[in-house]
Design brief:
- Helix content is about 70%, strand content about 5%.
- By secondary structure, it is mainly alpha-helical.
- It has one domain.
- The chain has a two-stranded antiparallel ribbon with strand order 1-2.
- Keywords: Membrane, Transmembrane, Transmembrane helix.
- It is a multi-pass membrane protein.
Length: about 200
């Protein structure tokens, strides 16, 4: 019997499915939202850094930066967070006149599929975390260099972008108890790793 008869054709559909899943995860599904998620906040930082070179009018620079920060706050809170990572937060007033903060995360479907891609998630969180840190650095720089007139603009950047950061972190991790438990677990893991490393060094 010919040895060729013992050879079977193996289906590669599973491999094709894995490749398609990876491409979907890495694909940016909302390019316009991803662009504007970074455009307003990066533009505000660029204008702040270059405004003294472009114009001598402090009022024009301040108004431009505040408008960019306001547009960024609205776009991130109402559009890009919902489209890119499936998160949203807002404030609502009940019938008794009490104000409530609502933090929501999109539920995963029964098949376990998510509408957001990994590429969009990275872009979203990178922009959401990095830019407030930059504004905090600007705040300390303005404070220590005695640029009092710029301090109000920088504080506005910290407050607006910090509010979105806090809101989406609450959406991601849940309530404060979950946030505290995550921090406790992280510190516990770090302490355990250091203890194991010290024991290994002692044993060696």
């Amino acid at each position: 019997q010919d040895s060729n008869d013992d050879i079977e054709d193996v289906s590669l559909f599973d491999a094709d499915d894995d490749v398609s899943r990876r491409s979907k995860k890495s694909k940016i599904r909302h390019p316009v939202a991803s662009f504007f998620h970074l455009f307003f906040r990066v533009s505000a930082i660029v204008v702040y850094l270059l405004c003294e070179l472009l114009t001598s009018s402090f009022i024009a620079c301040m108004v431009t930066i505040i408008l960019l920060l306001s547009c960024d706050f609205w776009a991130v809170k109402n559009v890009t967070g919902r489209l890119m990572v499936g998160l949203r937060w807002w404030n609502q007033v009940d019938d008794d006149g009490r104000s409530h903060w609502v933090f929501e995360a999109r539920k995963v479907s029964a098949q376990g599929s998510k509408t957001s891609s990994e590429a969009e998630s990275r872009i979203f969180w990178l922009g959401l975390i990095t830019c407030p840190v930059i504004w905090v650095i600007f705040a300390f720089s303005a404070l220590f260099s005695f640029k009092v007139k710029w301090l109000a603009v920088v504080v506005m950047g910290v407050v607006l972008q910090g509010a979105n950061l806090y809101g989406y972190i609450r959406c991601k991790v849940g309530n404060r108890k979950n946030l505290r438990s995550m921090a406790t677990n992280y510190l516990g893991k770090q302490f355990l790793r250091q203890t194991v490393a010290k024991e290994d060094q002692t044993a060696s």
